[in-house]
Amino acid sequence: MNSFLPILRGIHGVWLREIMRATRDKGQLLGGVSRPLIWLLILGVGLNPYFRGEVFGEVRLVLPYSYLQFLFPAVIVLNIMYTSIQFAVSVIWDREFGFLREILVSPMPRWAVLLGKVLGGATAATGHGTLVLILARFADVTLTAPQVAQAIAYMFALSFALTCFGVVLAGKVRSFEGFGVFSNTVILPLYFASSSVFPLDPSLTRTQLVASYPEWLIMLIYANPITYAVDALRGILINFNQFPPQIGFGLVGIGMIGFFLWALRSFGR
Amino acid sequence: MIPAAGFPNRQRLHFTRASPKPYICGLSLRPPEGYGRGEVNQTNCQEADFAGRSISLLIQPHETAERAGPAVRVEHLSLKYGGQVALDDVSLSIGRGSSFALLGPNGAGKTSLISVLATLREADKGLVEVAGHDLRRASRQVRLSIGMVFQDPSLDDRLSAEENLDFHGRVYGMPGRARADAIDRMLDLVELTGWRETVVRSFSGGMKRRLEIARALMHEPQILFLDEPTVGLDAQTRARIWAYLNRQRCERGLTLLTTTHYIEEVEDADRICIIDKGRIIAEGTPGQLKRELGQSFLHVVAATPADHAALLAAYPGAHAIGAETLAIPAGEEDFVAGFLARFGNRLREMRFEGPTLEGVFLSLTGRVLRDRTDGEREAQRNAGRRAGRR
Ligand SMILES: Nc1ncnc2c1ncn2[C@@H]1O[C@H](COP(=O)(O)OP(=O)(O)OP(=O)(O)O)[C@@H](O)[C@H]1O
Ligand SMILES: [Mg+2]
């Protein structure tokens, strides 16, 4: 107890600094706002008419949702992915500009420092996810209060796991300069190779799926954890699941713990 | 100069010239007439008017200080980076409330030693105790009791001065009120109160340095590590900070471990340790070192280049300082008389220099200790940053 309160204060301090960093970084804020707008308003609205109905005289998909509704949860996940993984920049920044040493000579245990940082990063990412929720009415998604609460809680858990993943990446990257490119090569493939921008029709059997998509893509999508993460959020927001939502929740839970421990190993060494 | 005769016991009589009010620390003396022992003992630090100058007397509780053990104890410490030896069998002990200076050329291992003491690097071999705690077993206690001013910048320059200090206070577990008080006090000390809400990025180098010192002192550490702390500070600020540090030593037994290139600051230290290539090559009080290792030098500028050459030929032991000046060791009693007889009319300038720490350093390492230029420092800082990156 005697040493618990100071540690709590320390975690709060580290968290606060991350929040200040995130809210003062105009570029990041701009990205957090413009990204969902572009995805929803341009990609979503643009592809909306093609989603359902006939393509070259053939019915491809039978989903009770519009493309905008379908894309909406995925855009939230995309926004979270960007902000969380970009968080690595904060870790690299601390290391490069010497601030990390100031933290490491402090009496805070290493796990507490990391926890504070990751909570800060996850809060910022959840904020960017919640920004997208405001656009719900443009995507024809109606939300009840419990749905919003559930979604925010889930988004926070997902942000936490991904932020830890960002810290792990920071441990592997030596310089700032490369990180922007690097993060794009991680985020975009992960995002596209999940069923985020195109649906796998749950009513189709696997053989039927293979008939409409190449085998390798289906394999990729099944192997990609983001598929399940997006799917669980779809369940919450538009009540549509391609997989049992437990898979998504379970993966996020495992990711939170697993990536945190992994990040702890690389952090501050 | 204060007449030492006023102090019956002259052991460890010492005051800092840098401070406007000299402080005398670590005295074990019978107070001078008119200052009864009881009176002095009421507070730890007593202002006294002596020989027309205001002095602070510290009556340090010697017995308790000794019982508590040294502030830092290092035994047979070794550290390697890859295969390269940075510290080689270093042993030293720093008394509580004392001021200890590490002196050494670039790459000597000063920063490495401080990093080990501050738990930032793990030593390969050896025992280290800081504030009475074993470094390996109680690193949290160690970190609680130390303050650190890094050689390289370590502020978050996107935060304001106040936010930097506030972060520090929180991370050291200070409660809100204590934190706010400490921030006010520290900003006042380093005269940055007017810059409280300014983002650090727009600070000058010296202002950043001041803020770093304020930050290191904020949680009232028992031991303060200062790695070349006053580089880039003007003389006034330096004096002010040293005065504060010395007052802290008097009032609450703060221990100082400094590395510095300003020889005049080292002269004020209680003990000096000269380190080179990772090894301690000399240790003692400034007086001791000067007595035992110091040499007198005659600094001369020859009238013509021919005279210069003649001087060099006559005194092969002379060191060149700059383009014209020669430092000729003046060891023997009647050296100067003999020198003047030979070269007296062939000189443009002459200055006699008694034993100095520079001389000690020169005779031990064969190198002149001088300040690096700022450009060099910056280059080295960047190189260090690159090396520190993994
Ligand atoms: N991170 C590192 N990796 C490898 N070698 C290092 C590292 N840090 C320091 N060294 C080496 O260890 C030796 C001691 O360096 P250190 O920084 O302790 O010197 P210093 O006395 O502080 O020098 P300066 O006066 O320039 O600050 C040097 O030879 C340096 O090259
Ligand atoms: Mg150094």
From TrEMBL, chain A:
- KW Membrane (keyword) present: yes
Q: Where are the transmembrane segments?
A: 29-51, 71-93, 114-139, 151-171, 178-198, 247-264
InterPro entries from the entry? ABC2_TM, ABC2_TM_bact-type, ABC_2_transport, Nod_factor_ABC_transporter
Query: Does the keyword rRNA-binding belong to this entry?
Result: no
Keywords recorded for this protein, A-Z: Cell membrane, Membrane, Transmembrane, Transmembrane helix, Transport
Q: Name one GO cellular component term.
A: ATP-binding cassette (ABC) transporter complex
**Annotated GO MF terms:** ABC-type transporter activity
Q: Which Pfam families match?
A: ABC2_membrane
Name all ABC transmembrane type-2 domain ranges.
Answer: 27-267
**Places the protein is found:** Cell inner membrane; Membrane
How is the protein disposed in the membrane? Multi-pass membrane protein
Query: What does the sequence similarity comment in the record state about its family?
Result: Belongs to the ABC-2 integral membrane protein family.
Protein name as annotated: Transport permease protein
